[in-house]
Amino acid sequence: MVKDFNYFPDRGIYVDEENDYLSAHLFLLRGTKWKSLRQKLTPTFTSGKMRAMFGKVRDCARILADVTPAASVVDVRELVARYSTDVIASCAFGIDVDSQHNPEAEFRQLRRRFFKSSLRTYLSQALGFSNPKLRSLLPVAFAPKDFTDYFTRLVDETVKHREETGVIRKDFLQLMIQMKNNGYVDDSFSITGQPKTEQKSKTLTTKEVAALAWMFFIAGYETSSTTVSFCLYELARHPDIQKKVQEEIDDVLKKTNGDVTYEVIMTQMPYLEKVVNETLRMYPPVPILNRDVVQDYKLSRYDCVLEKGTKVVIPVMGLHHDRKFFRNPVNFDPEHFSDEQKVSRHPFSYLPFGEGPRICIGMRFGLMQVKLAMIHLLSKFDFLPVGDKQVEVRMAPNNLLLTAIGGINLRVQRRQVAAC
């Protein structure tokens, strides 16, 4: 993942860039194309850019707290999914769909359709990951044609509108347009500059902009919503931990007069950080990482050579539940991320975002999205099991991402003290 990355730089997934161009995004691309695109996009995910977009995500989190029904049983996965939909629609596509008030919004329905298990989805994933050569002969697009048409049209219309009007909106799409037009991104978010000669090679094509917006849609939606819902599920099962994180949230918001800022959520809530990290340990959204061997590799300490073309799987879920690294792997224990325990284990035993050059480029944004949801929900509500004992969640066996079967139902009660 790091020291010998040049032997394992790709995921080994077939991408048909001509006929299935939405799949030609950062997660799936390989070789020099991946490296070039990664270099172009890295400046768009700095802390400064996250601060610029923070207000839009915070607005969605405030609505999430407003629409959460108290004194009722709620499928928190569905509730938080609508929040994630609004965040991605706003920041990746530059539109306000308000699916939190309107669950039947078209953008929301498309998301449901895409992530719903089907034979087409299973075939595209299975062929893409396990047999790229066969997939090239039997092209089954990752994104169905109607999805491709819809999202391409949506991006094209938004890009055209912003370029014609000069409107500046501080979101990812604005940065993509800035890169498309100027060959660079800066804090002005302006899209009217002219690329210098040495920067023309760094510009993006319209199809690349659409593919990147699509990547934010499929990567940013499901991962964040499942993390929040699994976190609430475990807090309902562990009321002592829930109370402790609520007390930290209350104390910090009291000091800031309820002002939730980027610096506050990322630096001043260490116990919330532990709780989120422990959730990602027990329920990593991507339970395995895959790599493709691009040149023969001799395994150190073993009489074994991984030949070029070999598929390698890194078992994230297995590492996260290994007693060699975590003292009580089957228990939800935020102290797994105390300073003492962190320094006692191998740093790559915890890989919710991957590691090395292919680490998730949107890690900061994802954590910001998750923490804002947790702060606004836990400052106003208690989450409790349904009945005397919370039913154990079961995971869908054929999904690429870790997904609970049948949702996650919890009982919601309004707290007597609301901090924000």
The CATH architecture name reads Orthogonal Bundle
Rg, rounded, reads: 22 Å
Largest sheet: 3 strands, antiparallel
How many structural domains? 1
The number of helical runs is: 15
**Morphology:** globular
Q: In CATH, what is the class?
A: Mainly Alpha
| Number of distinct beta strands | 7
The portion of residues assigned to helices is 40-55%
* Helix and strand run: HHEHHHHHHHHHHEEEEHHHEE
- The residue-averaged pLDDT reads 88
For this structure, the CATH topology is Cytochrome p450
Strand order in the sheet with the most strands: 1-7-6
**CATH superfamily grouping:** Cytochrome P450
Give the N-to-C terminal Cα separation: 41 Å
What class do helices, strands and sheet pairing give? mainly alpha
Indicate the low-confidence ranges by residue numbers: none
Provide a quick synopsis of the model.
The chain is mostly helical. Helices cover 48% and strands 6% of the residues.
Please, could you describe this protein's structure?
This protein is mainly alpha-helical. It has one domain (5-414): Cytochrome P450 (Cytochrome p450, Orthogonal Bundle). It has 15 helices and 7 strands. Strands 1-7-6 form a 3-stranded antiparallel beta sheet. The longest helix is centred in the middle third of the chain and has 32 residues, at 206-237. The two termini are 41 Å apart. The relative contact order is 0.15.
